[in-house]
Description:
By secondary structure, the protein is α/β, with parallel strands linked by helices.
Amino acid sequence: MAHRSKRMKQIDALIELNKLYKLEEALELLKKCPSVKFDQSINVALQVGIDVKKSDQQVRGTVSLPHGTGQKIILVVIAKGDKAKEAQEAGADHVGAEELLEKIKEGWTDFSALIATPDMMRELGKLGKILGPRGLMPTPKAGTVTTDVAKAVREAKAGKIEFKVDKTGNINNAVGKISFDGKALIENIKAFLVSVSRAKPASSKGVFLKSLYLSSTMGPGLKIDIGSSITLGEEGQ
Length: 237
């Protein structure tokens, strides 16, 4: 049997295997787990009721978390002229065109999100093999290909995040930091779940939000009782 650290044994003593936790209860437990040297992210793993093989059942969208993610957002905007100036004034961290494209081509991906004007997408599309696997390729659906770059920058800085289903039918996102108070985390999680519910494909039948796990970066994954914890109305059915 593998050796379990003192920290893991302390965590084991706090949690009950296979228990369905209420949201508030799970957050309290994650906060009680032995601390580490950094401010951990609170992550959600949400399984949705879709057939991943069907192209009309893909789930993708954005949500503005009321309290942000707590992560430092480094924004790159690929734009020229007036649009570049607008992006700088709105607070983008790096703004440019050919010189930034060349930098990315050489392997630079040390940023959180990429916003581009439509006229730059032809050149940006050539960098799909670099940006795609890292989830950094801008798309119109996510609001990251836009002529209103100032609005996109402000929203991203305020906590707007993108979510999308993976090949296994799961959506994984960070929704805050363990240092946030419980109320703020609950509001972020509820906003996230409502937005995912609204992205339910018309052809998806039956229960859409199938299971939800909550975890911290270095903590356990706790299964959440969606029904008793979160009221979403008809959107969550």
